[in-house]
Amino acid sequence: MGPAVGPAKQVAGEPHAVDRLATLLAEDLTAVDAIIHDYMTSPVGVIPNLAAHLIDAGGKRIRPLITLASARLLGGGGDGPRKLAAAVEFIHSATLLHDDVVDLSSMRRGKKAANVVWGNSASVLVGDFLFARSFNLMVETGDIQVLDILARAASVIAEGEVMQLAAANDADTTRERYMEIVVAKTAALFAAAAKAGAVAAGRAGPEASALETYGRELGLAFQLVDDALDYGGLSATMGKNAGDDFREGKVTLPVIFARDAGDESERGFWRRAMGGERTDDDFYRAQALLKRHNAISRTLDAARTHATAANEALKLLPANAYRDALADLPTFVVERGF
Description:
Blueprint: H1 17-24, H2 26-39, H3 46-55, H4 62-73, H5 80-103, E1 107-108, E2 111-112, H6 114-118, H7 120-141, H8 144-167, H9 175-200, H10 206-232, H11 235-238, H12 244-247, H13 253-261, H14 264-274, H15 282-292, H16 295-314, H17 321-335
Antiparallel strand pairs: 1-2
Helix pairs in contact: 1-17, 2-5, 3-7, 4-5, 4-9, 4-17, 5-7, 5-8, 5-9, 7-8, 8-9, 9-10, 10-16, 10-17, 13-15, 13-16, 16-17
């Protein structure tokens, strides 16, 4: 049984959950990194240079680790899970490159975003290249079911990004609409990463469904915490600038909580600020309103609910070191940066 998700903090000097999972899967992860670097090579120099700028920038590889752990948990062997893990990382990296162009982001993983260094056109096209390479890897596994899982996830992610773009600057975005966006743009890849690992291990039944639920709930928790961090975290923790969501007019759960709890004057502020008429001081007022209405703590409580649901799903799976390592991730995801 996985541990309950609560306010536990990492002990000083103790490796966090991702590091423990990476240690458990060290041989697999080394092989995945080799596959990634092999498949992002190209005679067109800007492609490997731009891709490496993002992929080698210190990302935690959470999604490919989930794929690997899900497969090994269920007894899956061979190179199939490794190729799928690399494909998952390529899909994730491609979406980040595209997102940074759409959002006009200047920072990613603690350094200048690729679109700032190489320009928007190159970032979009290299993102397309990484998407294509991910499909090369899926096909090489020879498993049409995992190809279907990850191809569907790629489509859903794109739909989620378009939904988010359509909802930008709409201060009246509901919690239900916001959650639809989060399910699509973030949770879908976590869910597919976990399910694909199970299917690669030959366990396409209840175990795959349980891992899909685990991944989806973990992804929801992950995004809720990211949205809270935008108003209260350190840029070193986030790898991006604090307040980016606010400046981009993204109505996230902390804003929804504060808006719905506020008076008409406060709702007027959110309509103006999220609608695009922002002053330099508005971010600080937004932080003050979130604090007044406990919006950050309420968002983290919602994230903990999803993290607990992720661990509940793991109870259906065989007890072993891989399940224990996956069970550590939800607490790490919720408590990072706070």
